[in-house]
Amino acid sequence: MDIEKNFQRWLNSPVVSESTKEALRAMSEQEKGDAFFKDAEFGTGGMRAVLGPGTNRMNEFTVGRVAISLGEYVLEKYPDAKERGIVISHDNRHMSREFTLLSAQIFNQMGIKAYIFDSLRPTPELSYAVRYVHAVGGVMVTASHNPPQYNGYKVYDDTGCQLVPDKIQRMLDILASHTDELNTPIPYADKPNVTITFDKKIDDDYCREVEGTQINPDLDKRGFKIVYTPQHGASYESAMQVFKDCGYEIYPVEAQCVHDPDFGATKSPNPENPEAFEGAIELGKKIGAQLLVTTDPDGDRCGLGFLGRDGEYHLLTGNQSAGLLLDYILSERKKKGVLPKDGVIYDTIVSSSLCRDIATSYGVATESFLTGFKFIGDRIGYYEQIGHGPKFQFGYEESYGCLVGDFVRDKDGVQAILLYSEMALYHYLHGENLAEAYEKLQAKYGYHNAFSKSLGFAGPEGAAIMKKMMEEASAKPLSEIAGIKVLQVEDYEKQTITRDGKAVEKINLPKSAVVKYVLVDKSTVTLRPSGTEPKVKFYVEAVSDKPDGLKEKGDLLYKDITTQMHVA
Description:
about 575 residues; globular
């Protein structure tokens, strides 16, 4: 894309406001390059970009172009799209409400009914609402856990699942045909449609469904204190209703319950970052809480912390918390005689192998997918559509997202914090904290040190570096990492598994720029470009039959692969 040509196109356009043109003139060359070197793209979590003017930014023109393309897509795909409509929700970010109303207006002008909420709602409730009214699609305006300067646009199909590649491709083709985001024509309908605002019944029904995921709702909750923070985000109201309905002693971090688009009372809205828990830890120490839970701004992901024997709070990774929860769910369902013989869990190719080992021990199958919860939601829908197949028990990503009840087809932070609270309470009543429970799991299934790290590459130069890095990883795979022999290389772009340089198996997943090394000791190292930010992510899992030296082993694996790839 010609950066200067597109910059001038915006600067000279009559539809661009004078205030926006002033912002354009104030851009540095680097800012100009990053804003105009490409169109904002759809990744694993939809379209996500910094707010501001430019083709690679979130603004009324780039959002309008996508809304028009989605409208054309559903009109082409569904004969009854106009009346079934599209549901739109949003989080607390700058411009989220404005983008929601803009989308609704565009859909109405195209003859499509729009459903909106009276204010922000979490991503899982958007998924639920699509199914609730039998809409043809949905939109969630959110940048999830990204910094405040970002916003995003996620699109959903008629099952309440984010559109997977083979479903979204037609929409992307339509999007690509609209080459001028400043002048994308709206195909006006002869009869415009209306926007309907949901009443509170849908909130209550969603909360009841979440409450129905409990396994042991009657556990004694007296004296078990939970600190909760929504990180200024959209799940506060529904999460508090669920906690209170279920009888938990809940203490919200009040300063982080305000729907502040600047996230002023938290150092990070991302549950993956320890800084996100600082407010919760402070309150936890004040009241003597046993558990800390947080949801991210759009309410689809959840972080977990617990009180240790040392009187300090300790945080769990997404893999650790998922392992604990999965073991609790399967063991309790087995006790109650409700664990099916044909159960299945879903994870991703970068998830820890611990959950797969746990599932296997209970006779439950595992299916693994590319990163992106949409693949898990789509698989649930596939078996639902054909009317037979394994029975869904649990789905999760290492990035702090999971699903227990399939009335939602995206990860659900409200379900997660409820079930994590129940699981932690169960162990508390049995005299152990979550560190002790996790130690028992690892003693049984093996010790796992799984973590991810990212390297950022901003701007057009960064995009070229990332592309070259992934091409070289595919063309020249490593034979050993940190002195440990590589057993096999899984190349998801080539869709092949190779051993000793020879293809031995085909990968039946969509093509993706991912390379995964499986080492002879079951440790793994995976690298892939982020689908939401300009960075390459490295996923490392060191595996051993003993805990000694496990952290050092993981650190060495990461250091060696970045050294060998010349990016250390």
